[in-house]
Design a protein that fits this description.
Strand order of the largest sheet: 1-2
Strand content: 5-15%
Number of helices: 10
Distance between the termini: 39 Å
Helix content: 40-55%
Order of helices and strands: HHEHHEHHHEEHEEHH
């Protein structure tokens, strides 16, 4: 055995262990609450989806949830909106254009109503993945045993009411025979949207929250094509220069 073989075996073992932990943690997150997670299909280049998601957030979510790391002015810049459009259609808290998105729900009352203050959603997608958020928005069902009247298969016993029920409608749980485990959800009362329309709305809202969790990703995507073109051009120039330097070397 050479002096290099032992470290290499350790490196391979470490890489295998790291891969196993990554796969295991991903599967554990996907199976949280006993529900398989559908793909959110996040696409930060779809500006129309981001705009629709912003409209949904500010109409249905900002009453309870803040985006303390995101400013109205940044949303306007990144989503192709004017200051007037943002202030008239998205700002319902009276904040100034350059201020962060802060809910006006009093924390003391939130503690009384829900048992704890609703979390800030600035980093929700980074913390739990877009698929988790998308699955969560599709998995509410009516549950009279819960204090707020709703439950969720992705996050069981959540203290959150379902703000989008008018859009999706009301889902009821079908339990497994002889068990309290939820086998599937059925739409017992249609909402204002068809199931496909609601899934698109949930996808748009998830897309917006994915953007909020890392706004710089939009800039990286825009710069990425130019970086690739530069590297391709540099590679051609380097190859031509190499041939020129070595043409007389035998």
């Amino acid at each position: 055995m050479t002096k290099w073989q032992l470290p290499m075996k350790h490196i391979l073992l470490s890489m295998t262990l790291a891969l196993g932990l990554l796969v295991g943690s991903t599967q554990a997150m996907a199976e949280e609450g006993g529900a398989a997670l559908p793909s959110a299909g996040v696409n930060l280049r779809d500006q129309a989806s981001l705009q629709r998601g912003a409209r949904l957030f500010f109409n249905y979510c900002v009453g309870c949830h803040s985006l303390k790391y995101q400013r109205y002015s940044r949303i306007a810049e990144d989503l192709g909106l004017t200051e007037k459009e943002v202030m008239e259609n998205l700002n319902f808290t009276g904040a100034k254009f350059g201020e962060p998105v802060i809910s006006h729900m009093p924390e003391e009352q939130a503690q009384q109503w829900f048992g704890k203050a609703p979390p800030d959603l600035s980093l929700e997608v980074r913390a739990k993945t877009a698929d988790w958020v998308f699955g969560y928005l599709n998995s509410f069902y009516v549950d009279p045993s819960r204090p707020v009247g709703w439950n969720n298969t992705v996050f069981p016993n959540a203290s959150m009411p379902f703000p989008l029920w008018e859009l999706q409608g009301i889902q009821t749980a079908v339990k497994k025979p002889g068990s309290e485990d939820v086998e599937k959800l059925e739409l017992s009362q249609p909402g204002r949207m068809t199931p496909e329309q609601y899934k698109q709305a949930a996808r748009d809202l998830t897309n917006f929250l994915a953007y909020v969790s890392e706004p710089a990703a939009l800039q990286r995507h825009a710069y990425g094509i130019w970086v690739i073109l530069f590297l391709a051009l540099f590679t051609l120039l380097a190859y031509a220069l190499k041939k020129e330097y070595w043409k007389d070397v035998h």
